[in-house]
């Protein structure tokens, strides 16, 4: 009933429909291509544009559920009720105005496109889809206004006036030069008051273009460019697959299998937890879903094996960050897109470093140590008969990575099609064979996926606007010259790179970091003769750490919510793990063959 | 008041001849008007060619050096110079026809709000495949890369008995590595730069079609220049165009030689196979005329070529 009530809202309907199309069209293509040589006219283009609708309306759903990423509540969670109230008001009002500005800039972009319409196919022009941008930003602005903590008349006025104010301001001053510092101060305050990351990033991008007198429409254009990127549809589809597995008995089946394989002792349980969390994170896109899906299952198992609660939480929280290097994780695909490296090369490159990271977490992180633990139950030994039974029960889940990676490496599906195949596989095995998800559950998975991806896509789009400003101002070139004058060789650069990424990972949102920092740092790395695949692995390994470093570490928030502990307690519990992971990152940095050997063996 | 700005985008690599020519043009622009901010964005750092057209429309870029892929977003009839396979037999023919059509074409671009400063080339499209092939029928068992944005071209290929696989440019390398496609039409320079030739290590020595490009700037930025500046920029553009065209002619052979050193096999069709290719082209033309290329422009090209070949003999 609750799912239906949620579906009654048009934003969810639009976003879920777009996602369903993104799932079905590539599947039809896979079937049609070998049969008739040609699929649907321009199906990839349709799928990519559906991604734009998914992003904008998915973000609206996320806003409604209060799921838009922010860097913590900041002043909006202060002790003083007045400070709290005003911080909340400022965050929402500021976001509403910024959304109005983004809507106006988007409208400028759409109008420029309408003057020279470009058909996607069958007489459908691209700008029909682009309208989702000004419309989506306006609605987001109105929602922020409506959420203002005030009386009803105030809220109605805010809903209309705040986005309109932003719109008129942008219209008035577009193309003129405005000083950067008032925006910078206002935006920093917004961030501290708990405003969504995307509005702050988008506002910063607009302010920077303003400071140079460049057109504001460059920001929505960049947002459009990344959302309709040919490889991008793989993101929502792999995420959908992960979400489906996360809400059926898949996690429990895999848990049974892994504990049977490794035994119930300290070693076995820790190994099972680390491997299972990594694989699950790879499947679910590393957005903290792993902790929610597996935390409740693994923590009791770990405690039964003799882990104190704090170390158990530390292991689950940190291991859930480790899947980033394993196919088909969302950051791995993102890096391939941004760095223009083939996706399957990255998939192979990540395997050995992922194992190295698990090794460092368990051995260096001290999770195999016995010591003071009081064993609650005698540890069971690996039981291969039970493992066989468990493997049979979990056969469909075990085969999922084979479908995902096999269809890609086997050469009959593009990255998008492979993702669609995996999502369809997840839906069909879990609904028809396991009967653990019904039609309503499928709809809910679609809406939830749209919400997760919508939030991520807005951050990505705004971050790309920021990156485009850096390119526009010629900053990457200057950065190369400066870094090369300061750091004499590859090794000093690698050490400095890791320290920089450690800091950036603590402060930045993960996806924004990929979009903004990769175009900036990759050319520098190339200038030092570092392989782009190796650089990608270093970057992603650092991101694994970023999931654990406050204030932006997503896993800390999920873990604190899941286990009912304070943020501080969780942060302390992952400290040994974070140190071990940092040593793993350094190892991967200094041993390039870990990343490049497998792709070279495969002939890529 | 704001400083004068000229921002030019291109897919050409940084420090390539194309990039250096653009930098030279910027020097001429800056000298003529005594200052100003000139920026070139190489390596597609401002996006693909369609994105660059969009960035020009919103006023973020003032110009771009690009191929017909981007140019036809502005003026579709430009496709005549690139989308007619085996129509041109040599660079002399391309030059002759382009020179004949140039005034009218530049007028069309001006009507769309763009000024053409230079015409350039980027080499001939040839076929790269995993297995050796010389006859048109040899390619019928292969899966061909086809650009996802061009449904009509795929339609035509299908009707002639070929198997196009619609993909994006970014998918070419993984697709050929995994066996999703077996053949790619590409210029030798692009095949060398993207490593396509490592997997598709057979090249057919047949000039399928030229890749033609131009340097354009927005009319708005052009009108903001003084007549003296316009004059200087025009001259610099003409010089850059000549250098780029000369380079493109050398680049095809140089790239092929470089790839041959690293294991590329070059297959040359014999007289009978050549005849089959020409017969295929003859069957293609009626389908291209009026669909991929406006009928009037198509006939114009054919007419110019007839004149050129009559005069040459
Ligand atoms: Na792709
Ligand atoms: Na972080």
Sequence stretches where pLDDT stays below 50 over 5 or more residues of chain A: none
Instruction: Work out the strand percent of chain A.
Output: under 5%
Backbone CA Rg of chain A: 24 Å
**How much of the polypeptide of chain B forms β-strand, as a percent range?**
15-25%
Mean pLDDT of chain B: 88
What is the quaternary state of this protein?
heterodimer
**Number of β-strand runs of chain A:** 2
Bound molecules: sodium ion
Fraction of residues in helix of chain A: over 70%
- How widely separated are the two ends of chain B? 60 Å
Number of strands of chain B: 10
How many distinct helices of chain B? Answer: 12
Q: Which runs of chain B of at least 5 residues are low in confidence (pLDDT < 50)?
A: none
Shape, per Cα inertia axes of chain B: globular
Radius of gyration of chain B: 20 Å
Instruction: Report the end-to-end length of chain A measured between terminal Cα atoms.
Output: 50 Å
Biggest interface goes to: A-B, 50 and 41 residues
* Overall mean pLDDT of chain A: 86
How many strands, which pairing sense, and closed or not: the largest β-sheet of chain A? 2 strands, antiparallel
Order of helices and strands of chain B: EHEHEHHEEHEHEHHEEHHEHH
Structural class of chain A: mainly alpha
Written description of the protein model:
The complex is a heterodimer of chains A (604) and B (313). Chain A is mainly alpha-helical. Helices cover 75% and strands 1% of the residues of chain A. Chain A contains 30 helices and two strands. Chain A has a two-stranded antiparallel sheet. In chain A, strand 1 and strand 2 form a beta hairpin. The mean pLDDT of chain A is 86. By secondary structure, chain B is of the alpha/beta class. Chain B is 50% helix and 20% strand. Chain B is built from twelve helices and ten strands. In chain B, strands 1, 2, 3, 4, 7, 8, 9 and 10 form an eight-stranded mixed sheet that branches. Chain B has a two-stranded parallel ribbon with strand order 5-6. In chain B, strand 5, helix 5 and strand 6 form a beta-alpha-beta unit. The longest helix of chain B has 35 residues. Chain B is globular and about 60 Å long. The relative contact order of chain B is 0.17. The mean pLDDT of chain B is 88. Chains A and B meet through helix 3, helix 4, helix 10, helix 17 and helix 22 of A and helix 2, helix 5, strand 6 and helix 6 of B. Bound molecules: sodium ion (2 copies). One sodium ion (NA) sits at the interface of chains A and B.
């Amino acid at each position: 009933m609750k799912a239906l009530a949620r579906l009654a809202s048009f934003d969810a309907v639009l976003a879920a429909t777009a996602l369903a199309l993104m799932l079905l069209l590539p599947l039809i293509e896979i079937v049609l291509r070998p049969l008739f040589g040609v699929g649907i006219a321009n199906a990839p283009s349709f799928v990519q544009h559906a991604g734009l609708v998914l992003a904008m309306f998915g973000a609206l759903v996320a806003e409604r559920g209060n799921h838009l990423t922010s860097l913590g509540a900041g002043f909006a969670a202060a002790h003083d009720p007045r400070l709290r109230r005003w911080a909340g008001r400022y965050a929402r009002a500021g976001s509403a105005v910024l959304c109005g500005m983004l809507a106006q800039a988007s409208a400028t972009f759409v109008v420029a496109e309408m003057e020279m319409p470009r058909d996607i196919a069958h007489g459908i022009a691209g700008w029909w889809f682009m309208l989702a941008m000004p419309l989506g930003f306006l609605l987001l602005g109105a929602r922020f206004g409506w959420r203002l903590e005030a009386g009803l008349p105030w809220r109605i006025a805010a809903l209309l006036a705040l986005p309109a104010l932003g719109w008129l301001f942008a219209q008035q001053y577009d193309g003129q030069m405005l000083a950067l510092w008032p925006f910078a101060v206002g935006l920093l305050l917004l961030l501290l008051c708990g405003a969504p990351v995307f509005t702050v990033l988008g506002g910063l991008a607009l302010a920077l273009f303003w400071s140079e007198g460049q057109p504001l429409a460059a920001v929505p254009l960049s947002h459009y460019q990344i959302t309709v990127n040919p490889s991008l549809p793989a993101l929502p589809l792999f995420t959908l697959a992960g979400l489906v597995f996360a809400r059926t008995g898949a996690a429990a089946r895999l848990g049974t299998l892994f504990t049977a394989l490794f035994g119930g002792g300290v070693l076995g349980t820790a190994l099972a937890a680390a491997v299972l969390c990594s694989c699950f994170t790879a499947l679910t896109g590393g957005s903290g879903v792993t902790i929610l899906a597996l935390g409740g299952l693994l923590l009791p198992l770990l405690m039964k094996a003799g882990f104190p609660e704090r170390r158990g939480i530390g292991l689950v929280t940190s291991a859930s960050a480790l899947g980033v290097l394993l196919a088909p994780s969302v950051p791995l695909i993102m890096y391939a897109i941004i760095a223009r490296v083939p996706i399957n090369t990255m998939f192979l490159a990540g395997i050995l470093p992922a194992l190295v990271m698990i090794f460092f977490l368990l051995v260096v992180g001290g999770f195999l140590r016995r010591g003071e633990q009081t064993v609650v139950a005698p540890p069971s030994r690996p039981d291969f008969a039970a493992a066989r039974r468990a493997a049979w029960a979990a056969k469909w889940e075990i085969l999922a990575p084979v479908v995902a990676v096999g269809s890609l490496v086997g050469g009959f599906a593009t990255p998008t099609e492979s993702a669609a195949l995996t999502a369809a596989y997840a839906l069909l095995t879990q609904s028809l064979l396991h009967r653990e998800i019904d039609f309503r559950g499928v709809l809910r998975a679609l809406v939830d996926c749209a919400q997760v991806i919508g939030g991520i896509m807005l951050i990505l789009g705004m971050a790309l606007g920021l990156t485009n400003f850096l390119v526009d101002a010629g900053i990457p070139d200057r950065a190369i010259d400066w870094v090369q004058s300061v750091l004499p060789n590859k090794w000093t650069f690698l050490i400095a790179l890791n320290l920089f990424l450690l800091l950036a990972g603590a402060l930045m949102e993960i996806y924004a970091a990929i979009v903004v920092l990769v175009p900036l740092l990759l050319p520098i790395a190339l200038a030092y003769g570092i392989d782009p695949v190796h650089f990608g692995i270093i970057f992603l390994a650092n991101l694994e750490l970023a999931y654990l470093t406050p204030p932006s570490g997503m896993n800390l928030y999920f873990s604190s919510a899941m286990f009912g502990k304070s943020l501080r307690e969780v942060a302390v519990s992952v400290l040994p793990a974070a140190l071990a992971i940092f040593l793993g990152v350094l190892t991967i940095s200094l041993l390039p063959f870990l990343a490049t050997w497998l792709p070279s063996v495969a002939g890529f | 008041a704001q400083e004068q700005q000229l921002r030019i985008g291109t897919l050409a690599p940084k420090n390539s001849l194309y990039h250096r020519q653009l930098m030279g043009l910027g020097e001429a622009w800056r000298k003529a008007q005594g200052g100003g901010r000139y920026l070139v964005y190489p390596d597609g750092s401002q996006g693909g060619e369609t994105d660059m057209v969009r960035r020009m429309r919103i006023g973020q870029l003032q110009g771009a050096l690009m191929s017909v892929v981007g140019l036809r977003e502005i003026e579709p009839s430009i496709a005549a110079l690139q989308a007619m396979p085996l129509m041109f037999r040599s660079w002399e023919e391309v030059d002759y026809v382009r020179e004949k059509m140039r005034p009218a074409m530049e007028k069309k671009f001006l009507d769309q709000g763009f000024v053409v400063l230079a015409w350039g080339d980027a080499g001939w499209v040839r076929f790269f495949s995993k297995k050796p092939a010389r006859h048109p029928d040899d390619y019928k068992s292969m899966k061909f890369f086809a650009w996802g944005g061009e449904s009509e071209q795929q339609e035509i290929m299908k009707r002639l008995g070929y198997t196009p696989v619609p993909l994006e440019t970014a998918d070419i390398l993984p697709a050929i590595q995994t066996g999703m496609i077996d053949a790619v039409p590409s210029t030798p320079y692009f095949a060398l730069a993207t490593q396509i030739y490592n997997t598709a290590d057979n090249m057919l020595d047949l000039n399928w079609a030229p890749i033609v490009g131009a340097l354009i700037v927005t009319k708005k930025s052009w009108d903001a220049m003084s007549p003296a500046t316009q004059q200087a920029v025009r001259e610099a553009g003409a010089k850059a165009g000549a250098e780029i065209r000369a380079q493109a002619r050398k680049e095809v052979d140089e790239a092929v030689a470089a790839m041959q050193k690293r294991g590329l096999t070059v297959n040359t069709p014999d007289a009978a196979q050549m005849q089959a290719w020409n017969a295929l082209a003859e069957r293609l033309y009626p389908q291209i005329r009026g669909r991929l290329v406006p009928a009037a422009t198509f006939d114009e090209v054919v007419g110019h070529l007839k004149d050129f070949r009559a005069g040459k003999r």
